[in-house]
Amino acid sequence: MALQGPEELGEQLEEPEDLDDQDASSISPAEEITLPSGLGGDDEPEEALLLPWDRFSAWLHCICVVGFDLELGQAVEVRGPTRKCPSCLGDTQFCFRFRQGSNRKQSLSCFLENTDRDAPPCLKRELGHYYGYVYFRQVRDKSLKRGYFQKSLVLVSKLPYVTFFHSLLKIMAPEYFEKQEPCLEAACNDIDRWPTPHPGRILTLPIMGMVIKIRIPTCYDKPGTSQLVQSAQVSIVLPTIHEVDLFRCFHPVFFHIQMLWELVLLGEALVVMAPSPAESSDTVLALVSCISPLRYCSDFRPYFTIHDSEFKEYTTRTQAPPSVILGVTNPFFAKTLQHWPHIIRIGDMKQAGEMAKQMKVKKLKNLKTLDSKPGVYTACKPYLNKDEEIIKQLQKGVQQKRPSAAQNAILRRYFLELTQSFIIPLERYVASLMPLQKSICPWKSPPQLHPFIQQDFMKTLEKAGPQLTSRLKGDWIGLYRNFLKSPNFDGWFRTRRREMIHKLEALHLEALCEEDLQQRVQKHSEVETVDLVLKLKDKLSQAEKEHLPVRPGTLAKLQEHIEAVILSLPEDLQGILHKPSTP
């Protein structure tokens, strides 16, 4: 009997609800707990108030064991507090991503908002999707009817910490395959004692007799830096929790890295055809990260199969392909997705010391099967001229046997500087949409932001465009024009607009705090004073909820002003106004 291929195994976790239908034993509660209002801030004392399994739930949704049954196919054997298995002997790791069911509640929502607030855009937890991190083992076993032992340990999480979870699986999975369920129970208990994943803190995480040390980056960190140091008492120190090796992933097609950056930046429909789930998922994650610090705002599937619930939606020919990056291994996709505008064919990833052959961009009609030669198949013409310097630098590194980590750092820095050169003119223009601070009046609503006008922005590029920071020539105007139509611009601008509105609200609050409220209420009736107090209490509550960027002490000062005004009112009104407002 033929070996089970990657498309036929482990398609159990299309939605979290699927797991509930399995006859699976439970390791730890997977029920989702919502914290009471106001619980779960930044401080460790508040973390001490968390309920059992809350800490576990801050890191993982659940742990699954997916085995292969000769009669039933793949089956979830164990689910704690899945999907696909590659057709290769030994151990392999990869990840996939899938939509959250519409009837699923957000667990620990108040607490996780606080821990997520300072994370960089690419590391904020997913709202509508889960990640599945997989450790798959396939070994010969003559005692089994099929002749092979095939099983996966899967960690399901909202967190995009791919490097961290793969490192965690390297500790957990071998132990599980040797000792079975009791060691998973111990691992779940270890994880439930971890501190919550708060950006900026150095976290020491004990797991199954070992210790992992990590630091979750913040949005304030300088890109490309790490603040972790080696420690003799720590088993594993991870310098990054999420970054994949860009050079290894792009090595087969690194002559086209600039074109790929453009395609990802513009949110183009893109499919990666790879020989294994590991290479598929790593390449998709590398593509998504190449526009950092911009967040990729479209859908992406590191490992996509014919069993995914979006298969028909993403492969239909009745409409244009959606803005999504798919990673696939099934040869069936070579035909099903041949109408897609951009296809990357990845061969076996070469070692860092091997030279990649220079390949021309190929026409889509030449892509017949998954066995077609590696390369980039597209009719797209890049907007920017090719940067020959980065190609020569990487080639020289290969010839001189430069370490892979150094090659990766060079490529990551190149992408970072390219993205920053592109985004700085947008940041400069959007900053000009902010009203002047002198226009903020404490007794009027905060002023509105000026609208984003595409023509006005385009005019700024002549004197303050990317040519100030980038050596690249080409059709920058055309690139910007298409970017402004993309989901990535929409997501970026929504975030910047929200940040600026919050800044205006903060400045308005600070202006209020400088006013003499006592003197003002003396000129107004009791009804007007009560109305003022209610509005101020509402603004204070909103400021605390949205974590407005006010100066230290501003909210406490405003609370003092409110208390002083309340005490100036008759006792019956004081009692009413001191009652907590109902939600």
From TrEMBL:
Q: Any one cellular component term from GO for this entry?
A: recycling endosome
Positions of the UDENN domain: 61-506
Q: Which InterPro entries match?
A: DENND6, Tripartite_DENN
- What GO annotations for molecular function exist for this entry? guanyl-nucleotide exchange factor activity
Source superkingdom: Eukaryota
Biased-composition ranges, Acidic residues, are 8-23
Region Disordered, as annotated, extends over: 1-42
Q: Which PANTHER family match?
A: LD41638P, PROTEIN DENND6A
Q: Which family does it belong to?
A: Belongs to the DENND6 family.
Protein known as: DENN/MADD domain containing 6Aa
From which lineage does this chain's organism come? Eukaryota, Metazoa, Chordata, Craniata, Vertebrata
- Whichever gene encodes this chain, its name is dennd6aa
